[in-house]
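Dear support,

We are seeing what looks like truncated structure output for some complexes. This example has two components. We would appreciate it if you could run it in full and send us the complete token output so we can diff it against ours.
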Amino acid sequence: GESVGLHLPTLSVQEGDNSIINCAYSNSASDYFIWYKQESGKGPQFIIDIRSNMDKRQGQRVTVLLNKTVKHLSLQIAATQPGDSAVYFCAEAAQKLVFGQGTRLTINP
Amino acid sequence: DTGVSQNPRHKITKRGQNVTFRCDPISEHNRLYWYRQTLGQGPEFLTYFQNEAQLEKSRLLSDRFSAERPKGSFSTLEIQRTEQGDSAMYLCASSPRTSGRETQYFGPGTRLLVL
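Here is the complete output from our reference environment:
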């Protein structure tokens, strides 16, 4: 069945450092992935997406990498800021979204 | 604000009572989705609509749950005879196309507490 998992439930980084959040998926037929950010008490907020015909996609301060060979994707956040503190989810997107459990990113001053 | 809206934002009810939540999607979005999220977990799919047609329901959606989208615009999710295990955040999302592989935009959620 479908399965999306994140490698670490929590990640703590220093302000200004880069953050890397990892995600693994099991369905080799998956062809579209989305990263969401969820702050406390709010709904998930779209960050960036990537389709399987790409290995890398960049946004503002964020980069998503997709390795289809090992069924792994990562979210890189450059120059992490206090406002980046949240739970980050990767989701496999087909007719519905299948989410992993999320990684809580904490920023140390 | 033209994002997805949900009402109420919070609901406290006693076990056995019925509750109804409303979702207003982004204007002209064809697809509307309901998810449930419990503490420390990612959202789990419940059901989705394309226009007014309910196309898929998760096994999580027991007989006590019913969702409607009568005119293909807003949607309601009703839970009858609530149980303490129904306590969760109920999230609504919408997407603009019919391919299924499009970004879904989420509302702020309705947090339900069943006492």
